[in-house]
Amino acid sequence: MQKWIMSGLFFAACAFAIVLMFALPGKEEVAEEQKPAMPAVQLDAAAAEEVVKATCISCHGDQLQGGMGPSLQQAGAEHDAEAIYSIVTKGRGQMPSFKEQLAPEEIANVAMWLAEKK
Questions:
Q1: Rounded distance, CA 79 to CA 85, Å?
Q2: Could you give the dihedral angle defined by the CA atoms of residues 76, 113, 52 and 93, in that order, rounded to the nearest 10 degrees?
Q3: Could you tell me how far CA 91 lies from the centroid of its own chain?
Q4: Which helix (H) or strand (E) holds 37?
Q5: Using N-to-C axis directions, what is the helix angle for 104-115 and 45-55, rounded to 10°?
Q6: Assigned domain for 46 exists
Q7: Is residue 22 assigned to a domain?
Q8: Which of 1, 35, 64, 99 is the 20 to 30 Å CA partner of 54?
Q9: Within a domain: residue 63?
Q10: Residue stretches of the annotated binding site
């Protein structure tokens, strides 16, 4: 009797494993979800500065010198525009995501503007 129970449990575990293999996303799909695609925009420095003044200075300072958040005065030396876009869109550490507050194009414009600061 125990052999039948063990065989049944083994068969159920194998069936469950097969279902998971086809149901879980692959590495490529996970990587795609983790890195949001930055839309192509033309850099508008004035618009980027306005967005930064409205949303970023409370944590990063009025001159982007840092405060609660890190200094962004040389953000481009550490990250390219796509990395900055990803950080602002998804958030990182104590920084919240801004995908609900800003349009993707606004985030992309700010990311390009910050990437030029080296």
A1: 10
A2: -30
A3: 6
A4: none
A5: 100
A6: yes
A7: no
A8: 35
A9: yes
A10: 56, 59-60, 95
Residue 11, token pair as written in the block: 């068969």
Q: How many domains does the chain have?
A: 1
d(CA 8, CA 12): 6
Percent of the chain residues past pLDDT 90, beyond the cut: 65
Cβ of 20: how many Cβ atoms within 10 Å? 9
Q: Which residue numbers belong to the known binding site for heme c?
A: 56, 59-60, 95
Type and span of the H or E element at 3: helix 2-23
- Domain, as residue range, for 71: 35-115
Q: Whole-angstrom Cα distance, residue 110 to residue 98?
A: 12
pLDDT, tens digit (0-9, with 9 covering 90-100), for 1-32: 677 888 889 989 998 888 877 777 766 665 55
**pLDDT range class, residue 36, cuts 50, 70, 90:** confident
Alpha helices by DSSP H, listed for 24-117, are 27-34, 45-55, 57-60, 75-78, 81-90, 104-115
Answer whether residue 26 is part of any domain.
no
Q: What is the mean pLDDT of the chain?
A: 88
Mean pLDDT over residues 72-82, rounded?
93
